[in-house]
Input
Amino acid sequence: MKKIPLLIIILSLQIPFALAEDGYRLWLRYDCVDNNAVLSTYRKQIKGFKVEGNSPTLSLVRTELEQGLAGLLGINVPQSNSVSASIVVAGTSKSSEINKLNLDARLKNLGREGFLILTTTVKGKKLIVITAPEEIGVLYGTFHFLKLLQTHQPIENLDIESSPRINLRILNHWDNLDRTVERGYAGFSLWDWHKLPDYIDPRYHDYARANASIGINGTVVTNVNANARVLSSHYLEKVAALADVFRPYGIKIYLTARFSAPIELGGLKTADPIDETVQQWWKDKVKEIYTHIPDFGGFLVKANSEGQPGPQNYNRNHADGANMLADAVAPFNGIVMWRAFVYDDKVPDDRAKQAYSEFKPLDGTFRKNVLVQVKNGAIDFQPREPFHPLFGAMPDTPLMMEFQLTQEYTGFSTHLVYLANQFKECLDADTHAKGAGSTVAKVIDGSLDNHQLSGIAGVTNIGNDRNWTGHPFAQSNWYAFGRLAWDHQLSAQQIADEWIRMTFTNNPGFINPVKEIMDKSWETTISYMTPLGLHHIMGWSHHYGPAPWIKDKHRADWTSVYYHQASKDGVGFNRSATGSNAIAQYAEPVAKLFGSRDQCPEEFLLWFHHAGWNEKLKSGQTLWEELCRHYYGGAETVNSFQQQWATLEGKIDKERFEQVKMLLNIQYKEAIWWRNACVLYFQTFSGLPIPHGLEQPENSLQYYLNLEFPYAPGIRPQW
Ligand code: BDP
Output
């Protein structure tokens, strides 16, 4: 007798049953809809499904529908051979059933990756159609449709058109070939280079599927601090095996290119981009890559920054370097993402100005297949930064956004920090480059300056931890990045809502308080780490915990005192016209706003101004009092998160409930640590008492100064 898998038996018997919830399934859990009214409506509306075609991508569509519908509806939803009433039909217009519907006019406008979901009636039969110009759109549409069921949305009269606003939606892995992950807090790298190409970890599929479910269409699998070896033939075979897995999910693979690879791998004497032998070396290398990976995406390059080699080693500029690589990949439709995160050993008057100073003059000199990849802010993924002045300043060059999902500066994987609010603040910021409404989002989606090429990158927080991201809530940052990359007009709250429903439950008694925690979490972390525009005062090198006292390192801009400039008279980096004048890199009226001590938004006060301890802020309190209030208030809010979370026991699985509870305990402890260390340290300058009513720190400043963390995770091995 044929054995029937246990899961199917359980599903068909509808025995209430729960696997231990370890977070592996992310937001794609597909558990049976737990609302009887909704469930019975869905069961009436969906009697079967039909996917025509057997290509790799359409096969994924079929599996997703099969598993998704069976799981969500809790019954076996059969595949139909013919079109009968109440079925879901998925396919491109090449599918004969869909072709009959004459949807070409609508499909035409959707672009290569868009999709259409429609309720329609064919010969009196009501159907749900998921269709798209290309197969990948059908897969995206399928995930979207299943999301409607996961979040209990009505599916009676569907008419949904959706297309991504940004073309390249890419994850950046800072993964090393030895499987350590720079700034990674969720275990080791997913890529098991030693066993590749012959051993394909099933997790590669799960990774690609999760990304496809949120529309991510590219991945850079290696660290920006690059190792040339990944470009060797030996490794390219391994990369090709990953590319083969990712392809049906619509995900292209990219590699980081070490600029000195011609020397290290090719044995050349130079990597000068103007040297013909160097150019030829890259052309040959690229040709080789494309024989392994015919749809290879291209290169991401960190050059002349933090010790990485680059064109400036040969007195060439960034465009010379980028263009050489761009010429090599152009015949294959490849692209180059050239990072603007640059600063060299000659410490300038203000590191915040360096990227703009180096790149702005190069606007218009890059090849058509080059994007300049700019971090959201001018320093380095700080908890909060004003938008990078390069956005809006290089109209003739497509600029790509780089966000950091891994929480290098926001509590690693032990702090609950929902970063969508941070992403949104940056995307919605108005550069005024072409008058009011010239938002950062419009710069990067290409609409402000009419660029066809557009891109957004997220430095991932993914590792081989069972739940992928370490903290269960860190999954939301991966999710939110994908959703915003697809549609930057979504709100952070909307994204949190759907993520909570899919990841945990549709129970409003859980959704509402958790949404509130998520919504407050970023601002709260800023308060207990770097309020009022403070920045880069984290632990030396590993960036774990507070260390505003770091000084006397071999370069000034790797110290905390350089950034906060605290003294007896006050605190903050004067970037106004009387200081480094970094504000002049912004267009008017932004420059004026940031440059004015009185008008500067207080969240950026100490970013742009050196303010006196006793100066009055908008609240009527002095700067010192306000700083203390932020540190204390931030820590207290974490305490309120703990209390709120405790009330949610029983509303979700025990496993994740307990994990989050323990992590919130850590977060609270660390928030107190941040608070105490910073307040005590800054007090040595202000000489002022901790405001009345706030408890005294339990330890001395010396206690905090003595703490050491040589094994903090995510550290750069070479540092
Ligand atoms: C910094 C990280 C460092 C990265 C660098 C980068 O501390 O590990 O290499 O960014 O983006 O935030 O290149």
Summary: The mean pLDDT is 95. The domain at 527-573+610-705 is CATH 3.90.1330.10 (Alpha-d-glucuronidase, C-terminal Domain).
